[in-house]
Design a protein that fits this description.
This protein is α+β, with helices and mostly antiparallel strands. The chain contains four helices and six strands. A hairpin with a 4-residue loop joins strand 4 and strand 5. Helix 1 packs parallel to helix 3. The model has no long low-confidence stretch (mean pLDDT 91).
């Protein structure tokens, strides 16, 4: 099973790397303000921060812009707009992941041990995913020389990662920040 998790990690990372240029294009569009679908009556002068949230089931990332009083001022849109064909994670990855789960259940391990292994594996996967996104963000903001408050988290998570300081920040702190 160790071998299989290594193999999965490898496919996962290579899937992510294939998506890097696409994600960076999407981030450029947002940062240069050419692709943000603002709500009626809102525009770039209203933006206080960018929020990125991922769904841990399918690893999709959505974006929205925050305004004064932490109000959402854009539509929520999915990133990797160009990903229809080589969607992430790939089918190859999804099928290998299913094989991993099946194989673990065929071993002599207790169910609790299997759950622990899978939970470890998912944590590592999220960590790889988060570091990948942070690297895309850093690349693009440095290239464009743009600074803006931005946050990354699981959908509806109480704590988000501040993409500039890389420190955790609570939704309450974020609300206080833009309430002035």
């Amino acid at each position: 099973s160790m071998e299989l998790t290594q193999k999965l990690r490898h496919i996962f990372i290579s899937d992510l790397e294939k998506c890097s240029p696409l994600m960076e294009e999407d981030l450029k569009g947002l940062l240069t303000n050419s692709t943000i679908p603002y709500l009626e009556g809102k525009d770039e002068t209203d933006v206080r921060a960018f929020c990125f949230e991922y769904d841990h089931d399918d690893m999709s990332i959505s974006f929205y812009a925050l305004g004064e009083k932490s109000e959402i001022i854009s539509d929520i849109c999915l990133l990797l707009t160009e990903r229809e064909e080589n969607h992430f994670p790939s089918d190859r990855y999804a099928s290998q992941e299913e094989i991993l789960e099946d194989l673990l259940y065929e071993t002599s391990l207790e169910e609790a041990q299997i759950e622990d292994l899978l939970s470890e594996y998912r944590k590592e996967k999220l960590s790889i995913f988060t570091h990948w996104f942070i690297a895309r963000w850093k690349n693009v903001t440095e290239q464009l020389n743009i600074t803006i408050d931005a946050y990354f988290s699981k959908i509806n998570a109480f704590y988000k990662t501040d993409l500039n300081s890389l420190e955790p920040i609570s939704t309450e702190e974020i609300e206080e920040k833009y309430n002035t």
